[in-house]
Give the backbone structure.
Amino acid sequence: MASFRFAAAAVRQFSTSAARNGEIVQAPIQVFGIEGRYAHALYSAAVKQKKLDAVDKDMQTVQKLIKSDTKFAEFLHSPLLKRSAKTESLSALLKKQGFTDISVNFFETLGENGRLAETTGIVEAFLKITSAEKGEVMCKVTTAQVWY
């Protein structure tokens, strides 16, 4: 029983030691769910390597590509292709397009974890975080229109 308490205390120390050393990067807003976890991980990696603007640009490009190219969106969502084949193809495409190493590694991780189908949500969550970082506020304007 005593050894369990010692082990539990040691585990708690490991989990909080990273926070004390300043290794965890806090995002300006919290985004939850699987999309939020991946978005926060990407944000943290980009900030640590001081490439947030470049990664933000990459994610905006991916978002535009998903919206404009239905074949690309179908490729990401297709369960018929093997994970390894999808990951290799996507990695080659992103490298050819000049994406940062952080973005390429991130999409390789998504592919290996079988999360490419959630790319749209992850990218949107990341862009919410970077918008908050820039101080942008999302709002919706509703106006009245007079009909005669």
Notes: The chain is about 70% helix and 0% strand. Residues 6-20 have pLDDT under 50 and may be disordered. The radius of gyration is 20 Å.
